[in-house]
């Protein structure tokens, strides 16, 4: 009988939940809701690559997609890596950072990474609800318990400048979060991280780099539009995002 129950569970569809309304993290005058895959389902790690293709994103152990009443500002986007070519500004970013070394590491927190993360939050997101993040919050937000992630470290003569948290699936990479040294802002480390993740995906023959959500006109999100070509998910499929 236990085998029958197990078989029925394997055959069940993964359940979806709507969250209640909460404050929007992008527009302070709006309320937000999310569509969430059942975080207790042990098959979530297997469903996750498919969920990326359905416009979902991971935060810790939560795989979600914005599903707000009356608002569709958040658009899932991805870069088809074989079609991408850096523009002049991005080539300058690569040249400006030619002295930066890069390595892929296991997704395991170090004291050095945590200190950089806290400096980044204090500088870039002061008052945003993440000011008191410590080791526990770092692990819950960036690593989770089941994701197959990696940390892409960027160093200048041994000094840690940035970390790009990246999920690895068979067909794609997903850029989960990037944090960097606030004092090195002139280097364009956020742009550099995406460019290096594109190279990584191409080198390992993965088709796409998922960038999460693009929001037209939002000062912290509109930068993703500078990567061409960029594909957007319209709720049914992916298509090139035109200007």
TrEMBL record:
Subcellular location: Cytoplasm
Keywords of the record: Acyltransferase, Cytoplasm, Transferase
UniProt entry tagged with the keyword Aminoacyl-tRNA synthetase: no
Record field: catalytic activity: N-terminal L-aspartyl-[protein] + L-leucyl-tRNA(Leu) = N-terminal L-leucyl-L-aspartyl-[protein] + tRNA(Leu) + H(+); N-terminal L-glutamyl-[protein] + L-leucyl-tRNA(Leu) = N-terminal L-leucyl-L-glutamyl-[protein] + tRNA(Leu) + H(+)
Record-stated family: Belongs to the R-transferase family. Bpt subfamily.
NCBIfam families: PRK01305.1-1, PRK01305.1-3, PRK01305.2-3
Role: Functions in the N-end rule pathway of protein degradation where it conjugates Leu from its aminoacyl-tRNA to the N-termini of proteins containing an N-terminal aspartate or glutamate.
Name used for this protein in its record: Aspartate/glutamate leucyltransferase
Organism from which the protein derives: Lysobacter niastensis
């Amino acid at each position: 009988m236990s085998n029958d129950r197990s078989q029925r569970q394997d055959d069940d569809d993964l359940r979806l939940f709507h969250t209640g309304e909460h404050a929007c993290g992008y527009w302070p005058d709006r309320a937000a809701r999310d569509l969430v895959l059942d975080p207790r389902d042990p098959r979530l790690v297997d469903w996750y690559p498919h969920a990326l293709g359905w416009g979902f994103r991971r935060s810790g152990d939560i795989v979600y997609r914005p599903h707000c009443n009356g608002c569709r500002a958040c658009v899932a986007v991805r870069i088809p890596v074989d079609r991408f070519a850096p523009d002049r500004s991005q080539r300058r970013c690569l040249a400006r950072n030619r002295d930066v070394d890069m390595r892929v590491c296991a997704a395991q927190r170090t004291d050095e990474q945590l200190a950089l993360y806290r400096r980044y939050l204090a500088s870039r997101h002061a008052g945003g609800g993440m000011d008191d993040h410590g080791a526990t919050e770092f692990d819950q937000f960036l690593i989770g318990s089941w994701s197959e992630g990696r940390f892409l470290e960027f160093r200048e003569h041994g000094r840690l400048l940035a970390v790009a948290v990246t999920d690895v699936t068979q067909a794609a990479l997903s850029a989960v979060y990037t944090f960097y040294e606030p004092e090195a802002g002139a280097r364009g480390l956020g742009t550099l991280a995406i460019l290096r993740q594109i190279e990584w995906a191409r080198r390992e023959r993965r088709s796409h780099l998922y960038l999460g959500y693009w929001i037209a006109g939002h000062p912290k999100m509109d930068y993703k539009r500078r990567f061409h070509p960029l594909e957007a998910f319209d709720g049914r499929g992916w298509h090139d995002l035109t200007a």
